[in-house]
Amino acid sequence: MNRLKQLTLTGYYWTTLPARRCVGARRAAQGCEPVQVLFYHRVADEHPNDWTMSTWAFETQIDWLRTRFDLVSMAEAQARIAAGHNRQPTVCITFDDGYAENMQFAVPLLLKHRIPFTYFVSTNHVLGRRPFPHDVACGVPLPPNTLEQLREMAAAGIEIGGHTRSHADAGRLSGDELVREIAGCKYELEDALDFDVRYFAFPYGQHGNMSSEAFGVARGAGYDGVCSAYGAYNFPGDDAFHLRRIHADPELVRLKNWLTVDPRKVRNQCDFEIGAANRTALCAAH
Q1: What is the pLDDT of residues 205-215, one digit of tens each?
Q2: d(CA 143, CA 122)
Q3: pTM value?
Q4: Which of 63, 70, 210, 248 is the 20 to 30 A CA-CA neighbour of 89?
């Protein structure tokens, strides 16, 4: 982020923060605090790219989150949404893809602080030890997690989730191919890890990367919930099967603007599924 943009965002954050706090107090009193789901990809200091966060930035964010939010599991996040009432600022942490470097810093840090999180992986890559095509295209074939690492995480209580078999764009698939990517990923992970895989995250996660058919396949496969990634809030009473996620931007000020519930982002939120009207009615205080 260039210096001018950073100063503008920082100024916006601090000048609007008092008003946000007032609205937040009313929101909490009404039980309308959103459940916010963050997603990360790779935490490392070598070979930085657009989907990598430095260890310093990650630790800074986790320290900020720990002092201000209830950090909850995916199941607890769903329970708070489904209950239709939530008074506590709430965040759920997730990771996508499955990068081996996460075992060096990010995973140990979260375990140290006993912070629950869900780790979504693409089975062709983590089980077949194949670098992701987007990394190969950049000339840096970063190593995916190994099966042994996934088993180690699962033994530590980390929720392992599906992210298709080949990091596929589900919005472009249908029929048997869609079933193989979404349901097949779940079954492959369950066979490899010997436990239930309950959650699924759509690669890319924008509106065009999902479909009603894909949601139906995920439900039929037995997933308890699915995650998008287009940047949106989950308000009490929303569909708890679909968890809308926010990208954990390396710039802390961007994260602060999101998680203190930016009124601009609430106004501009456009949900994939019908449910926005319910959200608006519940949270008219915004």
Answers
A1: 999 999 999 99
A2: 13
A3: 0.92
A4: 210
